[in-house]
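Field: COMPLEX_INPUT
Field: COMPONENT_COUNT = two
Field: RESIDUE_TOTAL = 634
Field: MODE = joint
Values follow.
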Amino acid sequence: MNWTIRVSSSLDEVLAFLANERETYGLKELENGHYSLTKSTGWQPEYHTLGDFRQIEPLKALFFPAREFIGSWKDQSALHPLPNRIVFGVKNCDLSSLGVFDHVFLNGVCPDPYYQEAREKTILVSCDCNSHLDVCFCPAMGEQPYAMSGFDINIAQTAGGYILESGSERGEQLLESARQYLEPATGDLLEKLEEQRTRHYGELVENSKAHGLNPGTDFRTAIETSFDSDLWQEFAEDCVECGACNFICCTCHCFLLADGYDARAEPARTKLWDACLYSGFAATAGGGNPRPLRAERLRNRFDKKFSYFPQVLDRYACDGCGRCSEACIANIDVRDVLRRAVDECDALHAHSSDHRAN
Amino acid sequence: MNATLYMPIPAIIERIEDETPDIKTFTIRPVEPIPFAAGQFVELAVPGIGEAPFTPSSSPRISDFMEITIMRTGRVTDWLHNMKEGDELGVRGPMGRAYPIADFHGREILIVGGGCGVGPLRSLLLALIDDLDAYARIIVRYGARSADSIVFKDAQMHGWDQGGALDVMLTVDEESSNWDGHVGMITDILEEDYLDCHASDGIAVMCGPPVMMKYGTGKLLERGYLPENIYLSMERNMSCGIGQCGHCRLGRYYICKDGPVFSYDELQNDRGLWDD
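Field: COMPLEX_OUTPUT
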């Protein structure tokens, strides 16, 4: 169901109502023009905003914290439960990335109770991107700058007003409960939204193409074909294996179960983000390492995203948010790597058709 | 909230037996039984120190305790080797895919082990021996570095052949005065002179160091075993054990949940297969 805000009300009023008593995350605009997820109690109109494009940090941190205390050896009693939460301003790249996390932490051998609780207790209010960053390339990954599923409520800003759409049962109930601020959106307004989305999608397609990435390209074949290419060594020469691309990535989910001691000096276990670029990531006892070279580890990262996930989940584990390109201190741009792999793959095919022609 | 997904249950070390100078077999009794099938693995944790994956070497018929044969080869295994009977460990499991023993019924089974890799195979062998008549024939070929590094005493004393019911042969790489058996690589005793087998429809099960698995698989294929009938116990650093943490990925599989037992035809197209 699509709603719009009554003239007698304001967006801030609606958002404050939706946030209610929940732990509230909204975007805060920084001096450099970027956004950062900012926690508060309730919607804070003086600094919370929905944001025109995605925030700096990946949404995953709210569901899969960088450092999560699992338990102490002696005392495995229940941890503090999470509060009910609401996140405003989620962009589609982050929303889509949760599909990867749901696959790993909910639909595998056994669900992760921490992740499950975080998902259940968090209401996701997404919103359309109004503009994009230079590094954005979601159309090349089969995505678009607005959410089509996975949200509880989506908010789109149009010239004719805001459109609030429910995407889940609880989102629907929440909007129903806010009826005093809302009225059904008119067909005219929805048409405006469609035009606006089409226009903005087109702009992002142009931005992706300007960096050599076309929507519909078979990146899986490109990455698999380039297994023995020199490209991995060439890009790896600049890589300092800091793991920033892994940590900032909205889909990277690898972690380490680290044993140590808690504040009472009792043995305890913590779950920490891990990075496949680290040399010890796949190392085994006795000195074995399936990927001793940095080039192999860099290739592995692309293999996981563009070959493994298409095989097990029929999607790339990349939503084109471009965060890794921004975070890399060696200026390795994910788009350059993908474009190089595609170019080499195309050249190989052109070469083999030449042979057939001869 | 249930925290046991990533937290082990306590287990007491009941017995420690020296197998070789750097391999010990630990008998551990968890606070609650852990029923497992041959080939599945568990995570053993030293409190506050770390955790590592191991496959039990005892019979899967017994679930209230298990034997685990461990080579001293890294940080966690160093700690384990310094522990004493009565000490407390943590254990999580069982994890992963076991040997498909039901599919082995009526078939000839060749078990090929190398070094400490014979641990999981001992568990399998004990399961097979329980129901000896269900299999056409059981053959064991085991290679160790030297007579002193043969892992199980019952293997050395040929206790595995069940009074001649099984065809068992051992080999060591290095000659020594306390060894009167065969000297040579494991692949030598897979040759026709030492191995009379029905390769075309036989099952072969192999576990050992990566280099042995690589050349051993090559030899089995050469002898006529079919890729779908060769079972390999693969090892990577399985950490969470439930397909989440990402450390043990091999191509399209996670060793911890899709393996550790694979048939060779599932793996043969993976370009990183034999990387250790």
